[in-house]
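User: Some background: our group keeps a shared notebook of sequences we're curious about, and every so often someone picks one and asks for a predicted structure to add to the entry. Today it's my turn. The entry only has the sequence so far, pasted here. Could you supply the structure so I can complete it?
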Amino acid sequence: MMKFPRRGLLAAAAVATAATLALAACGGSGDSGSSAGESFSDADVQSALTKGGDLTVWAWEPTLKQAVAKFQQQYPNVKVNLVNAGTGNDQYTALQNAITAGNGVPDVAQIEYYALPQFALAKSVTDLTAFKAGDLDGTFTPGPWASVHSGKGIYALPMDSGPMALFYNKELLDKHGIAVPTTWDEFLTAARKLHAADPKAYITNDTGDAGFATSMMWQAGGKPYQVDGTNVKIDLADQGATTFTKVWQQMIDEKLLAPITSWSDQWYQGLANGTIATLATGAWMPANLVSGVPGGAGKWQVAPLPQWQAGATASAENGGSSLAVPSASKNKALAYGFVKYVNAGDGVQVRVDNGNFPSTTAQLQSQAFLDTEFPYFGGQKANQIFADSAKNVVSGWSYLPFQVYANSVFNDTVGKAYVSGTKLQDGLKAWQDASVKYGTEQGFTVK
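Assistant: Of course. Here's the predicted structure to add to the notebook entry:
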């Protein structure tokens, strides 16, 4: 099953990883792998690809297998060792351990957008402006492109994206005479109507998920994290957060959310048996429905993400990854050549053909891509909705340089609102306090 990890609940190991990264960033570790002063021309990169050599790539994204095969056909002197060192946190922990030990660091590493700032600030990954990566401006959609920037640096190239949309069980909504909601207020009304008609059915599930919550704030125009190097401002009571909590608190109070954790067996069963009616998530979701809910074929469809204001078209990202070149790589020119091939060259179409949702404007604007019919959605041309969403991602969003840690304590703070009398706004305040405390302890200046 092709599952792209979300910015969701995180393993305890992430806390140790985040601490190590933050300390490295603020303690002036003097990472010997820093790319300061280095400069590579296109000719240097092409020469490295022609000459060849060995590359170790740590990644879990499934379509890279096909892209690697095509890459090696084009550059037969390059041998790529594609390693799945774990998904998300598991890989980040292994990567940080290798960086700390100074041994076994890969040449290329997959890093999700929310986690990239930590590695960038710690100088654990190469600033790709040394390779003129800035010339790729316009190649990628705004959300992913902004996510690989930190200050004036570019620390990875976007590999995929997760512009949000609403996946819904059309058969179920039609059965109860419920129109597809176009606003979150309509979504709340639909939730009430559905649950009243069938107490076993819920408009969606949510037991507390950091990635989903921040995406909702993002779409609402929130900018809770402002980052300038090691100076950080956190405001989880801003307009975006307030807009989100106003609606979502009612969903919680009225018990309109299925108390089922995403990606669990019970979740897949709910999607299949009509007890979970919709999902607001990233454009990478179709493959998961095809493999995880095969009986839903012809029942499910896609609609634009509901809006906080009627008539608006705002969207946000949910999920997505980049490919970075660790600073300790001994073969950076060759590594960048691979990353550029996979994320901005011929490898992009290879991955799209095998089910990846791109972050490149050329693919998203391609008529063939836009006209692709999804048999699972009854022949619907869902890419048109996803592509519009990608164009309408609200700009200006930033992640914390210790977001991995922050997300790991989401359930201990905001999560209480889903299982107790704690209000969402109080949970967000507790999350903010925990994040401020942690950031300050790690040497950041946090307000």
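Suggested note for the entry: The chain has two domains: 13-161+320-365, 164-316+396-446. The mean pLDDT is 91.
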